[in-house]
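One record is given unchanged without comment:
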Amino acid sequence: MRLRNDKPEAGNQPATDLIFGEWYPAVRTSELRPGSMTTTLLLGIPLVVGRKRDGALFAMRDLCPHRGIPLSAGWFDGDTVQCRYHGWKFEPCSGQCTEIPSLTQIDTLQPTKIYAGAFPCREADGFAWVYVPEAGMGRITAETALPPLPQVPKFSAQFRTAHLSADLPCNVDHGIIGLMDPAHGPFVHRAWWWRSAASIHEKTKRFEPLPDGFRMSSHAPSANSAPYKLLGVYGEKIETTIDFTLPNRRYEVIRAGHGENGKWFASLTTITPVTPSSCRIDVVACWNVFYNVPLVPQIAKFFGARFVRQDQETMIQQAEGLRFRPAMMLIDDADKPAKWYFALKQRRLTGQGEHPLREPVELHWRS
């Protein structure tokens, strides 16, 4: 299958169509102390995200509905966001206007009937997740049914957590198909502590459909990935499962044993569209392996950051080539997950079509 970078074709072309009606990670909650707010872009929408004095998170469109000045240019007292242009005040969780200072006793306008754009904002795994509704959904209230908040799977009460992020200069589709690409490891991530070119060998993996994605069925981890071998010291059979679900989520779970004494590592990686032509990779990982061993979190984050940086550098280099709008290809079997993603996304955007993976299949590639 060939792809052109300048003429979109349904189901097989990286495009700028974005999926709304979903939760996306906006900012790390460590940036949001009570009474503070910060700005970010999400799906091309300027947002101001903050934490009220009582601890509640909020996300507002960073535009005053009066004259369009960014609300982040104004003031936040821990309870109310005030526009610096005319002093309009807003309750940030609902977006409801509470005061218009210029009104007099003869004015009939009721400020409380005016709303600035506000989005549901929840905290999970160290991120402020923002629900970005589809156009025409109307104002969201506490009674509005929303999809479940994404979270990393966890299998014990005690665990360690680490976060990584990197900006990618490509549209979300290029970021996602890079995320799920099974064949780039020995090249992009070539390192003594991960994989070498000489370690390439043929692999066979079973995939099965999920309602809005697909799963690489439970299997033994790649023998040529050194970190996976760490769980082997516990003498248990090691199994890993990898899920991809729309709009942008890759879950990986590695387990050695089950029950109270089982050891595990789990991660959630997301590729979030910032603008139609740029995105951000966020990784949150949780584990109970070597839980009480000093410096393990620092070491894990050091090598994890290098791993993500390798992906980032590759995307920067790819962006140089994409400026010339080259023809591109998707091949079997290594690129089959990318084909499934484009078909799933097209089905989601149009509401038509069948799941591209109708039954479990085996794929074969070398990596």
User: Anything to note?
Assistant: Residues 296-322 form the longest helix (27 residues). Residues 235 and 357 are 35 Å apart (CA to CA). The two ends are 21 Å apart (CA to CA). Confidence is low (pLDDT under 50) at residues 1-15.
